[in-house]
Specification:
Largest sheet: 6 strands, mixed
Radius of gyration: 24 Å
Strand content: 15-25%
Number of domains: 2
Helix content: 10-25%
Structural class: alpha+beta
CATH topology of the largest domain: 2-enoyl-CoA Hydratase, Chain A, domain 1
Strand order of the largest sheet: 10-11-12-15-16-19
CATH superfamily of the largest domain: 2-enoyl-CoA Hydratase, Chain A, domain 1
């Protein structure tokens, strides 16, 4: 979950974007990406640069003694890489704190993280993967330059601006190859790129000239389901999510829905203020969460609305599971404590810490846990999660088929999803299932469970040019 001013510089690299492949395919209600993004704030240094804090002076002498030994006595043929040594020392220092969410990003990863949360990037707008020695288009993004130019899923990219891709990707693993190819294809808004593509269905090779543009990373998707139930899926809390949510809510409210389903399953979190703004759409003014600091003091953070649409009375079900983490849990906890919605699904992940982000002088960044957050009622959810009001395990049998509207030929016509099915049932008939609640297998204070950031968050061989 990220608590930050939104003035941080945005990077332009591809690595952090692969997770959005999870959004392709309509509702995508049963996805399994768990990589959370920490809740971060801009963090000012507490001491001037290059100054050792007085209370650490004696301990720091040892660091410089070792550095001097390496610099003067370590056997090496190549020049010492001081930057690599420094980064290693920083990573070790942060790791020694024993906090899974405190960490360090080198410049490339820091830029990718910021781009991922910015809500857009510049390129052609297509998901690619490197599979069986071929660079393939997985799918173009809706309304992207790639889709408008006519690229299709399954197209094989042979050349980019006349340069063969095969020699440039040879010897790389699939993830590295996809990322490198995406970085070659991407470029500034308004610039053209020519892809030479082989299409197996028609056995033809042709060139596509595509003008790059700003590509939005859609985090809110909505559909109107049977029984006039509005379905709103939020996949992440980005900078652009509130604007997307306002647009989605305005659209569905015009159709006078009988109820609303907010799907936060597999949503790993994002910006703190975005979570507060979401709560401000569904509950009257009040506390969104509490923050607790090292000295035991607490502060209340209120919901935010900023003139957005308000949905205060419409019957509402929120879908949760073990991939709902961080900022998602702020929304879930707030809606629960304000008695605004029925929670249905499975227990949330349990990330109740707040991180601060400091961009360093070389564009790297450090994330430092600065607080724990609690629900409006003061409940501690860290490593515990939030239990739903109605427990429903995910089952995908035909009896739980939900028909979906299709706006595009590639959209799913239906999905088998017990949680979504029961959410609709709850809103239309008030009927509740009777699944036995599972017995916990991990103690609430067991820190061996991997945090969302330590869990694979996306397909490893896909990237987004």
């Amino acid at each position: 979950m990220i608590k930050t001013s939104r003035a941080l510089a945005l990077g332009t690299l591809v690595a952090g974007l692969v997770a959005i492949l999870a959004f392709v395919g309509g509702v995508a209600v049963a996805l399994r990406w768990g990589g959370t993004l920490p809740l971060v704030a801009t963090l000012a240094p507490t001491v001037p640069a290059n100054t050792t804090p007085a209370k650490a002076a004696n301990d720091f002498k040892v660091f410089w003694e070792v550095w001097e030994l390496i610099d003067t006595q370590f056997y090496h043929k190549e020049p010492l890489n001081y930057r690599k040594m420094t980064y290693g020392a920083i990573e070790g220092m942060l790791k020694s704190l024993g906090d899974d969410y405190t960490g360090f990003d080198e410049p490339v990863n820091a830029a990718a993280r910021q781009e991922r949360l910015s809500g857009q990037f510049e390129g052609i707008g297509a998901y690619v993967e490197f599979k069986d020695g071929k660079l393939l288009i997985v799918a173009p993004i809706e309304e992207s330059p790639a889709e408008k130019a006519g690229l299709l899923a399954g197209d094989q990219v042979l050349k980019v601006d006349g340069q063969d891709m095969a020699p440039q990707l040879d010897g790389l693993d699939p993830a590295e190859a996809a990322a490198k190819a995406a970085s070659i294809i991407r470029g500034p808004k308004g610039t053209p790129v020519v892809l030479t593509v082989f299409r197996a269905d028609t056995n033809e090779t042709r060139d596509f000239t595509i003008n790059r543009d700003a590509i939005p990373l859609i985090s809110v998707r909505t559909k109107m389901l049977a029984g006039k139930i509005a379905y709103v899926q939020v996949s992440e809390f980005k900078e652009t999510t509130t604007a997307e949510l306002d647009k989605a809510l305005t659209t569905v409210l015009e159709q006078q829905p009988a109820g609303l389903i907010l799907d936060l399953r597999n949503n790993p979190g994002g910006y703190l203020n975005t979570a507060r703004e979401m709560l401000g759409r569904f509950v009257a003014d009040g506390v969104a969460l509490q923050e607790e600091f090292s000295d035991g003091s607490r502060s209340n953070l209120d919901t935010l609305n900023n003139g957005g649409p308000r949905v205060l009375d419409l019957p509402m079900v929120v879908l949760t599971n073990g991939g709902s983490a961080s900022a998602s849990e702020i929304v879930v906890g707030g809606l629960r404590d304000h008695k605004r919605a029925t929670l249905l699904g499975e227990k949330t992940f349990g990330k109740g810490s707040v991180q601060a982000l400091k961009q360093l002088s070389d564009k790297s960044s450090a994330r430092i846990t600065i607080a724990r957050w609690l629900t409006p009622n003061g409940d501690q959810i860290h490593q515990k999660g939030i239990e739903p009001h109605v427990y429903v395990p995910l089952q995908q049998e035909e009896q739980y088929r939900v028909d979906l509207p299709q706006r595009r030929p590639s959209d799913l016509a239906s999905v088998n999803d017990s949680q979504l099915w029961w959410a609709i049932k709850t809103l239309t008939t008030n009927e509740r299932p009777a699944f036995p609640t599972p017995t916990p297998t991990v103690a609430a204070d067991d820190t061996s469970a991997a945090p969302p950031e330590a869990t694979p968050a996306e397909p490893t061989a896909t990237a987004t040019p």
